[in-house]
Design goal:
This protein is an alpha/beta fold and 286 residues long. It has 12 helices and 7 strands. A 7-stranded mixed beta sheet has the order 3-2-1-4-5-7-6, sandwiched between helices.
Length: 286
Amino acid sequence: MHPRHRREEGAWLAGFGREARRMSRRSVNPSRRVSDGGLPSVGGLFHHKSRSPPVLTIALVVLGVILLIAYFNSGSGRLKALGVTVTSREAVSRSEGSCTSEVMRALPYLKKAYGTAIKKVLHVGPDSCTVVSNLLKEGKVEAWGVEPYDLEDTDSSCKSLVRKGFVRMSDIKFPLPYRSDSFNLVVVSDALDYLTPRYLNKTLPDLARVSTDGLVIFAGNPGQQKPKVSELPKFGRPAKLRSSSWWTRYFVQTGLTENEGPLKKFEEATSKNEYKPDCQIFHLST
């Protein structure tokens, strides 16, 4: 064969070999052909062996659901153990250290103790709408309330009391929006437990200022109650449940004395019915 023909044949074979190798490289990675078009290929990003099997994924989901159910059930169990029901706001308050519901229980005995003094009553504390509403039902009592915290989830009856001015929202760390001697009796619950002595020095004398016949304070009992941890976002600080001796010393320091007459009548009335309050109740003379 002519040398020139041999060179041409060799060049043709070399070119054919290069084309075959190029085609072979393309066939090795088919996912690359898709990705070369500009769109990312999931199959090219993850090897098929690295994918989690469907059975494992389902098992993980089921396990997560079981853990969530167990968590909520355990929380519900703790609430039930404390006597709390989610649908009862009053039950939640009592179980976690609230004394406002205690006010409702003590009202019949307070009426016997203070007699005609219960004509114009001011309640200071959460759930004032409930206390005021019950007092107004008596017909012979004028009642007002101060809600020291934000009113949340209020019903139409409470909104009506607020609209008519019977219940107000007011920060009790500042002077109350009432004139001196505006009420015969001032009842306080779930308010002073959240104040430091710094603010108590201002708030307590102001509560006495607006009362003519007495000041009744419902305070948490450190031996029977727990601070309301769930209310921290609302009140800003945990309740400070102080002992009876601490309160007695503090009242003396602020110039408030025990209201002996109503206190004696209150104890007589409660002893006949075997009423034992969960909260500490102090009767102070103003």
